[in-house]
Amino acid sequence: WNWSFGDGAYSNEKYPKHTYTAPGSYTISLTASNAAGSNTLTKSNYIVVTGTSSQTPVAAFSASPTAGTAPLSVSFTDSSTGSPTTWKWNFGDGTSSTEKNPVHTYSTAGSYTVTLTASNTAGSNTATKSSYVTVTTGTTGTKPV
């Protein structure tokens, strides 16, 4: 048995196992030999490996609403490219999250800078939006008559 996996790897096992580490189309060849001779079978583009894990993500996000009175509940939406597998949000008020699309409540008035770091096995990337969320104090007292 002589297997060629199309990525530079070979095996002489009858039932080999092989792991492809990069996306692409791979041509597989098997040459079987015995006392009478040998025969080769080749399958072009037989294995197709997809995925974007070899790309570092590009972090991007949006939020709604980005302004209002405290307490303000804000929904954050990840729109990163490059197939991130982990997320690290910093909401600018001393709290953070590792959810993909978190909801965060701001309880104190202020202007908050939000940061998202998106990561996968190829690396990480950070997006920062300065003064992105603005929270004001709600008015209290009696309504005019």
TrEMBL record:
CDD domains named among the record's database cross-references: PKD
Alphabetical list of PROSITE patterns matching this protein: PKD
Domain of life, per lineage: Archaea
Stored InterPro entries: Ig-like_fold, PKD/Chitinase_dom, PKD_dom, PKD_dom_sf
UniProt xrefs under Gene3D superfamilies: Immunoglobulins
PKD domain mapped to chain residues: 1-54, 57-140
Entry-linked SUPFAM superfamilies: PKD domain (SSF49299)
Protein's name in the database: Cell surface protein
Originating organism: Methanosarcina mazei
